Amino acid sequence: MVHERFTYHTLDEVRERSKTMKITLPLSDDLSVLGSRFTVGKTVFQNRLAIQPMEGCDGTSDGRPGELSIRRYHRFARSGAGLIWAEATAVCPEGRANPRQWMLTDDNLDDYRRLVEDIRRIAQTETGIDPVLVLQLTHSGRYSKPDGIPAPLIARNNPLFETANPIDDDRIVSDEYLSRLPEAFARSARLADQAGFDGVDIKACHGYLMNELLAAHTRPGQYGGSFENRTRLFVDCCQAAKSATDAFVTSRMSIYDGFPLPYGWGADADGNPDLAEPLELIRWFHEKSGLSLLDITIGNPYVNPHVNRPYDNGPYMPPEHPLEGVARMCDCISQVKRQFPSLSVVCSGMSYLRGFSGNLAAGMIDSGAADIAGFGRMAFAYPDFARDLLKGSFDPKRSCIACGKCSEMMRAGSVAGCVIRDKDVYLPLYQGSVKGSAAK
Question: Is 180 exposed, middle or buried (0-12, 13-18, 19+ CB in 10 A)?
Answer without folding.
Answer: exposed
